[in-house]
Fold:
Amino acid sequence: MPALVAARFNPDLKAKYQKLIDAGKPAKIAITAVMRKLVVTANALLKADRCWSQYPA
Structure:
């Protein structure tokens, strides 16, 4: 479920999802890619002891 929300509201992950869909990938594969990107990002933030911060507009 977090991947679905991220693919809808996070600009970076939304662009990644849309790029995969435009390339002809099935929606389930695109969501799985977003899910993996979320996990990798979360692990990197935990390892570096950092908090998530949104880019300034």
Q: What stands out?
A: The radius of gyration is 12 Å. The mean pLDDT is 91. The longest helix spans residues 27-47.
